[in-house]
Amino acid sequence: MKRNPRHAPPADAARRRAAPVVICYPDDALPPFDAAFFDAARAGMAKIAEITVPPRDARVFEVPAGHFFRIVSVEGPQVGDLNLWNAHDLSERFYSGKTRALHGTHVSTGDRLWSSFPHLRPLATITCDTLDWYGWDADGAGVHDVIGTRCDPYTNSLLGGGEYHYCCHSNLIRALAEAKDMPPEAAEPHIHDVLNVFMCTGFTRDTHQYFMKASPVRPGDFIEFFAEIDLLGALSACPGGDCGDSHSSDAASCHPLLVEIHRPRPGALAGWRPPAANTYSGSHGMT
User: Fold this and answer.
1) What single-letter DSSP state applies at residue 189?
2) Are 162 and 43 in contact (CB under 8 A)?
3) Domain ranges of the chain
4) What is the dihedral of CA 226, 100, 236, 199, to 10 degrees?
5) Nearest in space to 215 (alpha carbons), one of 193, 240, 190, 232
6) Most buried residue among 40, 180, 181, 227 by CB atoms closer than 10 A?
7) Which pLDDT belongs to residue 1?
8) In a 10 Å sphere around its CB, with 0-12 CB exposed, 13-18 middle and 19+ buried, how is residue 246 labelled?
9) Which parts of the chain sit beneath pLDDT 70?
10) Contact indicator for 263, 41 with CB cutoff of 8 Å
């Protein structure tokens, strides 16, 4: 954060600060969200599986391409940390930074979760969000952010001392290690920055520090995604509960989350194909 400056502003400071804003990645260059297609595909879909994520823990789930999955609040306000991978190649994973650059700090219906380089293609598209009514509040906060990285034992040790093993980073490691039958040290490099599902966050106006506040999520709320490719997902039910007070502790009231997998009705995806990997040659100017 920027503190008290040590240098006086130049004579033309006001003119420099008044430079016009330029959007880095105009969204009109992205493929449009086909709401009618997804609404039709959602109609008549059938739930084929569900996975309960216990409080302060994580679970792994799989979603075939062309299926939908929901993250559902079931007992009380609870935030979740989501990782996504290509089910056949863990090196292709959710890229929160590029998703943020393309769609903004918080995502909702119509936004896509993009994958890492060199693939850079949609992993999933958000097709329904019962919290889309929240918008931006008086503090500048919104829901479902791609800002925060996930609570982790390293930052907890740095700021507070001691060890805490049930933060989202460690939860996701345990879940992936168990699902893939690998030791934790092999699983950890695959854990990446998350979509903070249901989390209500923003930046303070004075110091622009990342803040959280109590999530507006209530039982029955959900966010729904369409799997653009075969996905492996991992979801942690954050030890911060609704993140209205603290995280990485045993003090917060925490609740389970539910992941539902839905299959669209036969014929609903006629003409749809999974997105191809990015078309960039990969030469980087060396050939």
Assistant:
1) G
2) no
3) 51-263
4) -100
5) 240
6) 227
7) 64
8) middle
9) 1
10) no
Give the C-alpha distances (Å, rounded to integers) separating 42 from 66, 159, 206, 258: 11, 45, 43, 19
Alpha carbon distance 272, 285 (integer Å): 34
Residue whose pair of structure tokens reads 């969204």 in the numeric block: 27
Instruction: Yes or no: say if 112 and 125 are a contact pair by the CB < 8 Å rule.
Output: yes
Taking Cα atoms as reference points, which of 62, 114, 70 lies closest to residue 275?
114
Centre a 10 Å sphere on the Cβ of residue 105 and count the other Cβ atoms it contains: 18
Where would I find the beta strands (DSSP E) of 228-283?
231-237, 257-263
Half-sphere exposure of 118 (CA within 13 A, CB side): 6
pLDDT of residue 27: 87
Residue with tokens 């400056």, as numbered in its chain: 5
What does the pLDDT read at residue 2?
A: 72
Distance CA 246, CA 251 (A): 8
Note the pLDDT of residue 248: 73
Structure tokens at 136: 């931006």
Query: Residue 165 burial by CB count (10 A; 0-12/13-18/19+): exposed, middle or buried?
Result: middle
Contact indicator for 227, 241 with CB cutoff of 8 Å: no
